[in-house]
Structure formats: C-alpha cells, structure tokens
Specification:
The chain is mainly beta. It has four helices and 32 strands. Helix 2 runs parallel beside helix 4. It is globular. The termini are far apart.
C-alpha cells in the first residue's frame, strides 16, 4: 500500500514548480550582451584542435549573380566545424587563395600557415532545381585527400549535405562518426500555444507535429527514430501520446485520469518510463511496455519522483526526487526490481539545492543535468565512468541553460537558454567550441530532444 505523503497539497505545488511553472513561465530578460560574454567550460581537453581551412566554395557551372549558394555553403561549413570543438578554423584573411584552384596538387603554401586539413567545395547547377555538390578534405601534411563525397539534391538540402560530410569526416579522423545529420524535437509557443515541433540540427526544415492548440510537453524519440512520445492535454487530461512520423497519425498511449508526466523510451524500444500521480497526490516513476501492458511502479518514497532517464544498457534509471526536501538526481538498479530496502535509490547530485532534468549520454559516461546556482540554472555533468562519481560544471553564463539532451555520438548537447529574453534552442560540443543558437523565432522554444541518426 502506498504511504500517504505528508502535506500533500504542498507536495503537488512543489511538483508543479519543478515541472510546469519553470518550463513555461515568462522568461525574465537577462543582463546579457554579446556572445563573447558566455563562458563555456571544456570538460574533456584534447591535446590540440585540428587546424582546418575552408576556402570559398567554387562553381562547376554558371551561376546567376543572385544565387548565393557557394557563399552560404562556405559559411555553414565553417560555422559547423567550429561548433564541433574538434577543429580550429584558420582565419580566412590568412589564406594564400580565397578559392582553392580546381587543379591544386601541391598544398605547400597552406603548410606555411599551419593548416592541417583543407576542405574544398564545388557546386554545379543541374537541370531544374537540382544541384551537385562535391566536398573534399585534404590532409595538408600528407598532401593527399582524406575524404571525398558527392551529393545531389535541391538547395534546401545543402545543410544536410554539409552536416553529413562533417559527420563522416569526424568519423574518418577519429574513428567515431559524428551525429549532426539528425533532427531535434522541441516545444514551441510560436502559435500561441505549446506545440511539438521538429527541425534539423541547424534549425532548418522546422515543422509543427501537433496543432491541437493545447499544452504539449516533453517530446522523446523512439530508438529507431520513427516515433515521438510526448505529453498532451488534447483530451483535457495530461496523457501520453505516441506520434507515428511516417504516417502522421498519433495514438493516446496512456490516459489514466490524473496527473501523468512526460516519459522516455528504453534503449531497446520495448518499454517506456514515466511518472504518474497516485490518488493521494504522490508522484512515482513507473515503467510500462510499449504494448501498454505490465505497468510497474519503480519508486516508493513519500515524495515526488519525475524525469526518468535510462542508462544506455537499460539496466539503470536516473530520475529526480525531492525526498530530501529539494529536487536531486538519483538512480535505481532496474535489474534488482523496484525501489526497496534491498534495492535503495542512490543519490548522485551531492551539491546544490535544486537539480533536475537528468540525461544519460549514449556512451554511458555522463549524466547531464540542470542545476541552480545563485538564482540561475546551468548545465552540469556527473562522470559515471570512475569509482568516484565527480560532478563538473559545464556552463557558467549570465542566462539560464536547461533541459539537456545528448547527440547519439555523446559529443554534443542540445539545450534551451534564455540569453536573449525568450528561450531558444542551442547546440554545444562538450569539447568546447562556439555554441550555436539554432532557433530564431520570436517565441519560446524549450525541452529539446536529439533524434537518432538519419539513415536515409
């Protein structure tokens, strides 16, 4: 039998503060200026970043003066390379040639400016609206090509061509492919109500997945990228819905009357972890099969447990609990069953009075979370790889950074921040680099979730 929590009304209000009010309250303007005011703390230092030069893209056919495609692709390539934190961009004003000649076979002049890698791009206009884009990366030290790719498509796919090339280049240079060529699901109030949207990781190809004019929260991807789980109030109750992206239809997955909260698919896609309210107002974490059967309660404290996040092997579950009086990060061993005296939940966040939104990195090394310091929210990491779990502060800025979500390669985080007053979606590399703001609408964009890699 569930134990009744003391001060149930206060507990519900505390829960609402933890979740809904902080997510969708009006953002107060922050005392912020230029991008340079941001201080991002590198958590994994490499010996040095690879110095890369990106001359202006060339053309393999005639281009109208109004077609700025070569310029746009050049700038996008430079920005994305710099954002990865793995490359240092050689200043363009130092280049021996602003455009690399097509017949260049000796890269000695680029060695003189300490260039390690040189990226050449060429664009040709084909019939109709189609283009052909050739991208090559040269190893200047070896005077040979590291990677070469050719892509064909319409102009609206330029961004994906560049992201896919960079993903493959990073894989070629490091042995582990990157994951920029993916999508981000998030919540936007651009329509006046909070709806689920999806976009590319550079902000392109944005579309609304829901248009029900109610409150929607917490989108989460299935492991195969075919479905999105979210919380919606379409039936006048906070219910869990699953959106089929290929067919466009959605089903109400869990709709028991009462307060239900956003959840996450398990790594194998067979289970969903979420939180729901008991008749006495207590909130606990549950798991349920994707068939809607075998609902099982996993936490049992007289407190509020929310925001579950699976470990990559599906054996552990991180979550938020206020059992010590303030929201903190805990984990439970699912292999040993539900929380009990023999299987107690372990508190991970040992510093700070308000910690929330845990997100387990796909490689299992880190749990990212939001922590409050001095009245504002920043991003933190718990290193799960060693015997002593160390906490590292990832951001320290004049604004709030919240709701982290990992890229599939565990190199990038997507999150929301109110640097410019309203909330926007940002991407940053855990290696440092320049964070990139990927939403530009005059609206609040929050609760981002990075998709699996695109396979087409």
């Amino acid at each position: 039998m569930m134990r009744r929590c003391s001060g149930c009304g206060r507990g519900v209000m505390r829960f609402l503060t933890i979740t809904v009010l902080l997510v969708f309250c009006l953002a107060l303007p922050s005392d912020s200026g230029s991008e340079e005011e941001y201080e991002f703390i590198t958590i994994r230092k490499k010996a040095s970043r690879m110095r890369v030069a990106v001359p202006r893209f060339g053309t393999l056919s005639e281009f109208p003066a109004a077609d700025s495609s070569p310029y746009e692709m050049t700038e996008l390539t430079r920005e994305l390379l710099e954002m990865t934190g793995l490359f240092e961009l050689v200043p363009p004003d130092a280049y021996p040639d602003p455009v690399l000649p097509a017949d260049a076979d000796n890269l000695g002049a680029w060695k003189l400016i300490n260039t390690e890698f040189l990226i050449r791009g060429d664009i040709a206009r084909l019939g109709g609206k189609r283009y052909q884009v050739e991208l090559r990366c040269f190893d200047v030290t070896k005077n040979e090509m590291e990677l070469g790719k050719r892509y064909t498509g319409e102009k609206n796919l330029f961004n994906r061509m560049v992201m896919r090339f960079i993903d493959e280049l990073i894989g070629s240079l490091t042995g582990r492919k990157s994951a920029l060529d993916a999508r981000v699901a998030y919540i936007s109030d651009v329509s006046g109500r909070e709806e689920v949207h999806v976009m590319d990781t550079d902000g392109s190809h944005d579309q609304a997945l829901t248009k029900n004019r109610t409150l929607n929260l917490g989108p989460a991807w299935s492991p195969d990228g075919k479905y999105i789980l979210y919380l919606g109030y379409r039936a006048r109750n906070p219910d869990l819905y699953i959106k089929n992206l290929a067919k466009g239809n959605e089903t109400r997955f869990y709709g028991k009357q009462g307060l239900n909260l956003p959840g996450k698919f398990s790594p194998d896609g067979r289970m969903i972890a979420f939180s729901k309210e008991a008749p006495d107002g207590n909130m606990d974490v549950y798991v349920i099969s994707v068939s809607g059967r075998n609902l099982k309660r996993m936490t049992s404290a007289n407190s509020i447990e929310i925001s579950p996040s699976w470990s990559p092997d599906g054996k552990l579950l991180a979550f938020v609990s206020d059992r010590t009086g303030s929201p903190q990060i805990y984990i439970i061993d699912l292999a040993r069953g539900s929380e009990s005296a023999r299987n107690p939940a372990l508190r991970l966040s040992l510093e700070g009075g308000y910690n929330s939104s845990p997100a387990w990195s796909p490689d299992g090394r880190y749990i990212a979370y939001t922590g409050r310091v001095g009245g504002q929210f920043d991003l933190f990491l718990i290193d799960m790889s060693g015997g002593t779990r160390q906490t590292r502060r990832l951001t320290a800025t004049p604004a709030n950074e919240e709701n982290p979500s990992w890229a599939p390669d565990s190199r990038f985080l997507v999150y929301d921040s109110n640097k410019y007053g309203n909330y926007d979606i940002y991407i940053m590399s855990i290696y440092g680099g320049t964070p990139r703001k990927i939403t530009k609408k005059a609206a609040n964009e929050r609760m981002p979730a990075w998709s699996p890699r695109i396979k087409d």
